[in-house]
Amino acid sequence: MRSLASATPRAVWSDLIGFGPQVAAIARAELLKLRRDPTEVFTRSVQPILWLLVFGQVFTRVRAIPTGSLRYLDFMAPGVLAQSVLFTAIFYGIAIIWERDLGIVHKMLVSPAFRSALVLGKAASAAVRGLSQTVIIYLVALLLGVRVRADPLAIAGVLVAVSLGAAAFATFSLVIACIVKTRERFMGIGQVLTMPLFFASNAIYPLEMMPGWLQAVARANPLTYLVDALRALMVQGGASAFGLAADFGVQVLALLVFVAIAAGLYPSVAT
Predict the structure, then answer these.
(1) What is the pTM of this model?
(2) Residues of the domain holding 115
(3) How would DSSP label each residue in 196-251?
């Protein structure tokens, strides 16, 4: 790995120009895995679809959760999309452990690529996987009668929000993988984290229903801001409680923090 601190200005400029292609190369390699096994996208979609079909339909009839002017199914659909993004991305780090066992990580670390480019490339491929989940959830939501916004700007905003969320949680997953280093521990921690992240957010009920301490936890949870952005952009009559600037700002900040941590820890996974 080359150090920018000790490089000449010309070398730094050359490295920065090459950063984008490095990220693209890693992302392409990761997406080729999805191309060889496209069934993964559909199997990951089963759980969120069941949430919409069962949980959403039942609670729409019960009307036990106050959602203002939105039907509960409309209120829940953005949360289910965020759940799908979270559940897909949070186990992304296990691929690093497999690559370590196969010797791929060692080869990457001796290459001239930046560690942050390695991490961002994997985050970019996770973002693409998140977009594939978006298409499936949108189709199911439409079939169930969810009043989805169809204007191009809103759809573009949803795609950006999903991409940022998937990249941020996938990078968080890489951080976990670099720390635990074994598949068994990683799977255990991943299972432990997903449900608290999901339920300590505004995905299936508004923040106002939570006790004070849980509201504080939810406001520190990046998933809350992803759901908030999706609720404002995805469904008719939806609104952002924090403002879209805050929602996207938190997602970008979380991604940058996780990328920085993962890039620093990446060599440790090889040991």
Answers:
(1) 0.84
(2) 9-270
(3) HHHHTTTSSS-GGGS-HHHHHHHHT-HHHHHHHHHHHHHBTT---SS-HHHHHHHH
